[in-house]
Amino acid sequence: MSAPSVTTPGDLPAGADPRLHDLARWVGTWCFRPAFRVHLHHRERVPATGPVVMVANHSALVDGPLLFGLLGRRSVFLVKQEMFTGVLGTGLRGIGQLAVRRGEPDRAPLTAALGVLRGGGLVGVFPEGTRGSGDVAAAEQGAAWLARTSGAQVLPVVCRGTRRPEGSGRRWRPRVDVLVGEPLPAPTGRGRAELAAATETLRGALAALVADLDAMRADDMRSSA
């Protein structure tokens, strides 16, 4: 007797296993607790339903998996193609994550992500494109295009503490802060200039949220000194 088929819901890409996705998300809610002291601020701002493009700063490899477990709903991330090899690649595809080639046009993952948004799902994008300082000095246009095309809200989320400072040694359970911003309406306007302007608005909102979180962390350090 053949195994029963698994129907992929609209908030995941075709071929993803929703049971595997939900299991991975459950594991993600606690698996980083032994390594980090995680402080999540304003998770109530994450829309419980409906299409959302989540944009986040990116300073460490762990940022994506950490957010995957903290958002409180299914999420599909655009992940660099290099991660999709061997067992890890099979697992990423199984839970519905999308491979994207960096530095070149790659419409296939954007089309798949658009389908997730039209199914009422949440798509996570790191608009900086590559890991850096996490200060969001530049942004690519994919996130704004997805939000504009689908009519999805844009949810800025920023992380601090996952990146080990240059020259520092191994850290013991460093504090990691995740701050969820207020959702932004979908960009409007159809032309390239409007898309560029929407991308800059998105970048500015994300950079401002980083500054807010840095100030919050500095205040906490002073008060605990």
Give a verbal description of the structure.
The protein has 225 residues and is an alpha/beta fold. The chain has a single domain (18-224), classed as Glycerol-3-phosphate (1)-acyltransferase (3-Layer(aba) Sandwich), CATH 3.40.1130. 36% of the residues lie in helices and 16% in strands. It is built from six helices and seven strands. The protein has helices at 18-28, 63-70, 86-94, 107-118, 142-150, 192-224, and strands at residues 37-41, 52-56, 76-80, 98-100, 122-125, 153-160, 175-180. The chain has a seven-stranded mixed sheet, sandwiched between helices. Strand 3, helix 3 (86-94) and strand 4 (98-100) form a beta-alpha-beta unit. Helix 1 packs across helix 2 (63-70), helix 4 (107-118) runs parallel beside helix 5 (142-150) and helix 5 (142-150) crosses helix 6. It starts with 17 loop residues before the first helix and ends with a helix. The mean pLDDT is 88.
Please supply descriptive tags for the structure shown above:
seven-stranded mixed sheet, Glycerol-3-phosphate (1)-acyltransferase, 6 helices, 7 strands, 225 residues, alpha/beta
Brief overview, please?
The chain is α/β, with parallel strands linked by helices.
